[in-house]
């Protein structure tokens, strides 16, 4: 019996051995043949946050960073002189210790600075370091350098912890400009001043995180132990750069990332919102500061007639666009100044409404158009935007079905780089665009669109903001109003000027506001305190799990 049992056992063991060998071989083949994964599952209990995004940074140099992917990282590794509270556009001191003292002529800003701050490399922060960083921001001539070079005449350390900045012209929104993520101090020991002398792969600032690792598809930020302010609520942040919205969507659904932010498609947001309502994870929304709008080129027929531009304004149906194009993930917008600011007035809603087709027909008839002589206009958009594509097709459908043939819209598209190169040359009669603000002040939704340095009522704008935007709008009255609001330090008086500006836009219609975005962040259930600042930056240091 023992022999027989032993023989059976040996045979069974041989089968088991063969099975294990075959299993191991299959496992080895499976592992070898599986494509490398872009994501790794967060390690539970290490206190670090894993963030997923498609926003790949082009550079980490604050003097050259001008895209959301770069600016969001710079924001979290740096401090500025001033910053925003989440949910507010009011600035507060950060490395400054008080709001600036402004001279009577509005040209000189004196700023007291915080003591006891050090850079990630141990270099002390002081007024000389801030002077160096602002001069470098201007003189290295990176993408955002115009923000300060157009405004700042000189910057000087007038004390160990006192900075004095003189402006070329009065600019009431200047403190808000100093809250721009790129206007942050960098270590004078680690950076140089000089055109093009950028360091895209490193960052040495004063913020709560320091850069520990920078790879092609991932970054690692560690907590800066010598940070002067409140320490982060987590042990650090791992950032995974996903190659597509689909990959980000899948990484979040499978739990490979704790937080997903920028950028998901509207249908993916809709799906994740549904999951959040079932309790699978969290959806965090915030009012955005990005506006979508239509440009009307007044140098192209038939848009040279104000009645035609006003007819287009009457045709627009924002609730319909929001429902069909955006799955209600935005807010209809009735002023070029978003509702983020208390100076915003919904004047386009009061005067033109939504889908007022009979009014649009009357205006076109007054301008001399009819069924036998229709107004024919091309609507252009950059090819990279499926949202704008759907918006353009929806507007064409409205014209085709509701305007009795008096208005004919033709939808056209071109590759994005070509579109943005050509729009300032006046090639596009109507264009659909988004505006991402540089800083949070109503001025940044007015001056870049409406100001014109050189032009005339007859020729339109030849040089200036409206020429760059493709509307070629020119109004001497508007130029004067913009200068007045830039000089005005009294908030109530400035609010009145913005009211006049919005009324002028309502009559002249060089642009039509369409919608104001909402920002969406998705977080796993075990994550808390996920917040956005009003400039769309996800605030890493608050996040806990």
From TrEMBL:
Every Solute-binding protein family domain range: 90-455
Keywords, sorted A to Z: Signal, Transport
Keyword Oxidoreductase among record annotations: no
SUPFAM superfamilies (UniProt xref): Periplasmic binding protein-like II
InterPro entries: Peptide/Ni-bd, SBP_5, SBP_5_dom
Chief localisation class: other
Signal peptide: 1-37
Residue stretches in coiled coil: none
Subcellular compartments: Cell envelope
Domain of life from the UniProt record: Bacteria
Pfam families: SBP_bac_5 (PF00496)
Family: Belongs to the bacterial solute-binding protein 5 family.
Protein name, as recorded: ABC transporter substrate-binding protein
Organism this protein belongs to: Okeanomitos corallinicola TIOX110
């Amino acid at each position: 019996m023992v022999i027989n049992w032993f023989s059976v056992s040996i045979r069974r063991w041989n089968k088991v051995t063969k099975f294990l060998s075959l299993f191991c071989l299959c496992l080895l083949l499976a592992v070898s043949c599986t494509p490398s994964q872009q994501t790794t599952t967060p390690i539970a209990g290490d206190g670090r946050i894993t963030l997923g995004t498609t926003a790949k940074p082009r550079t980490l140099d604050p003097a050259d960073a001008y895209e959301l992917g770069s600016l969001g990282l710079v924001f979290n590794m740096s401090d500025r002189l001033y910053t925003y509270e989440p949910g507010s556009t009011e600035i507060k001191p950060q490395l400054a210790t008080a709001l600036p003292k402004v001279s009577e002529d509005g040209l000189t800003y004196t700023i007291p600075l915080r003591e006891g701050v050090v850079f990630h490399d141990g270099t002390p922060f002081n007024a000389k370091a801030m002077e160096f960083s602002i001069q470098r921001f201007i003189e290295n001539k990176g993408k955002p350098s115009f923000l300060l070079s157009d405004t700042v005449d000189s910057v000087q350390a007038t004390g160990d912890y006192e900075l004095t900045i003189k402006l070329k012209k009065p600019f009431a929104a200047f403190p808000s400009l100093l809250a721009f993520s790129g206007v942050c101090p960098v270590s004078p020991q680690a950076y140089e001043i000089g055109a093009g002398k950028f360091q895209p792969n490193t960052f040495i600032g004063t913020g709560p995180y320091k850069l520990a690792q920078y790879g092609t598809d991932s970054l690692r930020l560690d907590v800066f132990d010598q940070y002067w302010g409140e320490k982060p609520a987590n042990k650090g942040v791992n950032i995974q750069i996903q190659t597509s919205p689909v990959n980000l969507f899948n990484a979040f659904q499978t739990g490979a990332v704790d937080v997903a932010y920028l950028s998901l498609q509207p249908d993916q947001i809709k799906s994740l919102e549904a999951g959040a309502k079932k309790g699978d994870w969290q959806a965090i929304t915030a009012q955005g500061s990005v506006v979508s709008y239509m440009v009307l080129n007044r140098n192209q027929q038939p848009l040279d007639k104000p009645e035609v531009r006003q007819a287009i304004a009457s045709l627009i149906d924002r609730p319909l666009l929001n429902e069909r194009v955006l799955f209600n993930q935005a807010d209809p917008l009735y002023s070029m100044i978003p509702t983020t600011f208390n100076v915003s007035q919904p004047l386009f809603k009061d005067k033109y409404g939504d889908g007022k087709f009979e009014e649009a027909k009357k205006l076109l008839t007054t301008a001399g158009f009819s069924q036998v002589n229709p107004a024919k206009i091309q609507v252009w958009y950059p090819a990279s935007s499926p949202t704008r594509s759907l918006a353009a097709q929806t507007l064409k459908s409205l014209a085709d079905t509701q305007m009795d043939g008096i208005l004919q819209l033709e939808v056209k598209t071109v590759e994005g780089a070509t579109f943005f190169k050509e729009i300032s040359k006046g090639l596009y009669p109507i264009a659909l665009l988004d505006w991402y603000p540089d800083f949070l002040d109503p001025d940044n939704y007015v001056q870049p669109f409406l100001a014109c340095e050189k032009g005339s009522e007859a020729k339109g704008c030849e040089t200036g903001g409206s020429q760059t935007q493709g509307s070629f709008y020119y109004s001497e009255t508007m130029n004067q109003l913009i200068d007045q609001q830039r000089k005005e330090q009294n908030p109530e008086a400035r609010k009145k000027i913005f009211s006049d500006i919005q009324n002028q836009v309502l009559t002249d219609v060089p642009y039509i506001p369409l919608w104001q975005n909402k920002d969406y962040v998705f977080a796993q259930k075990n994550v808390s305190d996920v917040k956005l600042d009003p400039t769309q930056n996800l605030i890493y240091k608050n996040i806990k799990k």
